[in-house]
Write a structure and sequence with these properties.
Length: about 450
């Protein structure tokens, strides 16, 4: 792969680009951020990956003005997509094969991705995959969506995991989000992370923190983990320990946060699951995260699934209270605060529909469109919460074949309540399996 071109620019080897029906996407492996590309921007950036032919002819063929070209180059350099050829770059490790991903969109993919009368639009492949890498767990949380336990059955071996990771990478998936169970109870988990790094896949994980000491935190940093989250379900240790059914689990979790922050992992976060039991502590927990140099907090209301299927979800009033807390905290703290559609004012399904502003290309619930999930046995689901298996990944020729299964197509079907909305071709609306949010109207939130 040529890294230089005659115009004096070279492509960053820390980005991945792929074509979509609306243009393309760029994944920055360092910042762990995904950007959208217009068709013209995708054509130009693709050229820098593989500078074959005359650049001027390309510019003429896509009908781009000198000013547009200047803006493209300026933005691409500012975002570190392109570098001046004299610049030196610290390249993230990618040792298993030549790192060059400028995936083209086939006619078949393009036809599948477009919106139809019945279906909303989708991506050519998930941007990321949730992977419960093991169901083994040392805790017994009351709401566990995966119903993890201390029993270990025949989970995928290391060789099979690596095979699937390669298929994800070749399909255009940008990164893998490892969960469990407790991922660190899998003896080869560090090796799995190292292999993912070696083929250019980004990685992030969620852990209960029990096994993270200074040494483990440093290993996670060294094998390229970009985001590490610790599940903390209460500001008070008594609340957290009760939910986790283990005395001392809050101490272990908070100590893990400190070790991860000190390890210089790019982004360290906490991920509380919000229930009626701990809703009143979320203010204090956000403040605790800010004081302990946490970079982000992922707030997730309880979904009554798995071991928590009989537990009460937040009521409408409680959901609106959480929404107010999130909005107020975003203006008060510097750390990144994330929450799902219906809770976060900045999520596109709610924001665009309510304010009727710019059309989102892909918004609302991402299950089966920009994400999917894999079990420790290789079973594929649309989402970690919607656990309707569509088969085992080892039995399919191509990973993206799952996108054409009836279960995935059902998630793209337009809801009756959304018909007539100006965004019905792009937006899947709020979560379809969380009863409270599923009953809310985007325009009334």
């Amino acid at each position: 792969m040529q890294l230089f071109n005659e115009n004096g620019y070279k492509i960053s080897r820390n980005i991945v680009i792929r074509q979509e029906v609306f243009g393309g996407l760029v994944f920055d492996r360092v910042k762990f951020v995904i950007y959208r590309l217009t068709p013209k921007a995708y054509s130009l950036l693709s050229y820098f990956y593989n500078p074959v032919g005359d650049f001027k002819e390309l510019v003429d063929s896509i009908d781009i003005t000198d000013n547009e070209l200047t803006v493209f180059l300026d933005h691409s350099i500012k975002l570190n997509f392109l570098l001046n050829k004299a610049d030196r770059e610290v390249i993230l490790p990618c040792t298993k094969y030549e790192f060059n991903n400028s995936l083209k969109l086939t006619d078949e993919d393009a036809k599948r991705c477009h919106a139809t009368k019945e279906l909303i639009s989708t991506l050519r492949a998930p941007t990321f995959v949730w992977w419960d890498i093991t169901y083994l767990c040392n805790l017994s949380c009351s709401y566990c969506y995966s119903n993890s336990s201390k029993e270990l059955r025949n989970e995928l071996d290391f060789e099979s995991v690596c095979k699937i990771l390669c298929e994800l990478r070749n399909s255009g998936v940008f990164y893998v989000f490892f969960l469990g169970g407790e991922p660190l109870l899998r003896k080869d988990f560090i090796d799995i992370l190292e292999y993912a790094q070696s083929i250019g896949l980004g990685t992030m994980l969620t852990s209960n923190g029990w096994f993270i000491n200074e040494s483990v935190a440093n290993k996670l940093h060294d094998v390229g983990v970009s985001i590490a989250r610790i599940s903390i379900d209460g500001y008070r240790s008594s609340t957290h320990d009760k939910i986790r059914n283990k005395v001392g689990s809050w101490d272990k979790a908070t100590n893990a946060v400190n070790h991860l922050v000190n390890s210089k992992i790019p982004k360290v976060g906490i991920s509380p699951t919000i229930t009626p039991e701990n809703l009143n502590e979320i203010d204090e927990l956000i403040n605790w995260a800010s004081e302990h140099n946490v970079d982000e907090i992922q707030i997730s209301p309880l979904c009554a699934t798995g071991r928590g299927k009989h537990l009460p979800e937040l009521s409408v009033d409680e959901s609106l209270k959480l929404k107010e807390i999130v909005a107020a905290s975003k203006s008060k703290y510097k750390l990144e605060i994330n929450a799902p559609e219906g809770i976060d004012n900045n999520k596109p399904a709610q924001h665009y529909v309510k304010h009727e502003c710019m059309s989102p290309l892909l918004s609302g619930c991402g299950a089966g469109r920009n994400s999917m999930a894999i079990s420790p046995y290789g079973e594929v689901y649309p989402c970690i919460l919607k656990r309707d298996s569509v088969g085992n990944v080892l039995n399919y020729d191509k990973f993206n074949d799952f996108l054409q299964t009836e279960t995935f197509l059902e998630l793209r079907r337009k809801r009756e309540s959304c018909l007539g909305c100006k965004f019905e071709d792009y937006c899947a609306g709020l979560c379809r399996i969380m009863s409270v949010r599923n009953s809310l109207d985007c325009k009334k939130l």
